[in-house]
């Protein structure tokens, strides 16, 4: 594909705008400045503008380390939306593949591919999500068994599906919980049903995709092809 077409598709720019961007000398292909729109780019090329990688034209797949205090929606009259953390074009096309509460931190996936996100969020596919949880009160001896059996939540007809609880540090009241559903405030309500309280919640994994340890809160990166494809497995 020609570089000017690549920029038009990836940035939603007109051909005239793409030419102007190229003339500025701020576009590199594999670290070399390219000013010519006719330069050919292949799938293996890394195209950057002002030092930031421009994702290939086509669907976008992003992992964000959501910090505390940001909501997973486009609009919120009170809190910041996590979208302000993204430096992306055509923001209105993007959506969250599963939300986190405003005070929950960790892995969120963002995309404009509805079929892909449906695979993650649809209850039918039972996609695993792992949360690191810090509790207010000591971990009950019966918790592992109770989570495995399913927990009855207030205002829900059916108990939760079997979930896996791993105790990380009993003194610090720290556990890892893996669930396959995404009911409203599910993790907090599960612990509340056992008389405990979640002090802090952090999502580490969705399916086979782990929060990249190189990311700081508020940072994001594009998913690798392997991570994207893992959702279909
Ligand atoms: N469960 C919760 O209670 N909150 C979240 O943000 C995610 C899962």
TrEMBL record:
Name the enzyme's class: isomerase
Stored InterPro entries: PsdUridine_s_RsuA/RluB/E/F_cat, PsdUridine_synth_cat_dom_sf, PsdUridine_synth_RsuA/RluA, PsdUridine_synth_RsuA/RluB/E/F, PsdUridine_synth_RsuA/RluB_CS, RsuA_PseudoU_synthase, S4_RNA-bd, S4_RNA-bd_sf
Q: Which CDD domains match?
A: PseudoU_synth_RsuA, S4
Lineage top rank: taxon: Bacteria
UniProt keyword annotation of RNA-binding present: yes
Keywords of the record: Isomerase, RNA-binding, rRNA processing
Q: Which reaction does it catalyse?
A: uridine(516) in 16S rRNA = pseudouridine(516) in 16S rRNA
The record, for PROSITE patterns, names: PSI_RSU, S4
Q: Which Gene3D superfamilies match?
A: Alpha-L RNA-binding motif, Pseudouridine synthase I, catalytic domain, N-terminal subdomain, RNA-binding S4 domain
What biological function has been recorded for the protein in this entry? Responsible for synthesis of pseudouridine from uracil-516 in 16S ribosomal RNA.
Family to which this protein belongs: Belongs to the pseudouridine synthase RsuA family.
**What is the recorded name of this protein?**
Pseudouridine synthase
Give the encoding gene's name: rsuA
């Amino acid at each position: 594909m020609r570089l000017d077409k690549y920029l038009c598709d990836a940035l939603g720019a007109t051909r005239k705008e793409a030419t102007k961007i190229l003339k500025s000398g701020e576009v590199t292909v594999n670290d070399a400045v390219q000013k010519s729109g006719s330069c050919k780019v292949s799938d293996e090329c890394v195209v950057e503008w002002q030092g930031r990688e421009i994702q290939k034209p086509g669907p976008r797949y992003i992992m964000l380390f959501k910090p505390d205090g940001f909501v997973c929606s486009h609009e919120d009259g009170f809190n910041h939306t996590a979208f302000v953390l993204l430096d992306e074009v055509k923001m209105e096309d993007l959506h969250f593949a599963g939300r986190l509460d405003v005070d929950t931190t960790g892995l969120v996936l963002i995309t404009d591919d509805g079929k892909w996100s449906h695979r993650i969020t649809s209850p039918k596919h039972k996609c695993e999500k792992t949360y690191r949880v810090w509790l207010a009160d000591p971990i009950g001896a019966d918790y592992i068994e109770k989570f495995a059996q399913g927990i009855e939540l207030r205002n829900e007809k059916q108990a939760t599906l079997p979930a896996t609880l791993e105790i990380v540090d009993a003194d610090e009241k720290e556990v890892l919980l893996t669930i396959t559903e995404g009911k409203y405030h599910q993790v907090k309500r599960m612990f509340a049903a056992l008389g405990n309280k979640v002090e802090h919640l952090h999502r580490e994994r969705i399916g086979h995709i782990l929060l990249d340890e190189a990311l700081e809160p508020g940072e994001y990166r594009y998913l690798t092809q392997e991570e994207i494809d893992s959702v279909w497995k």
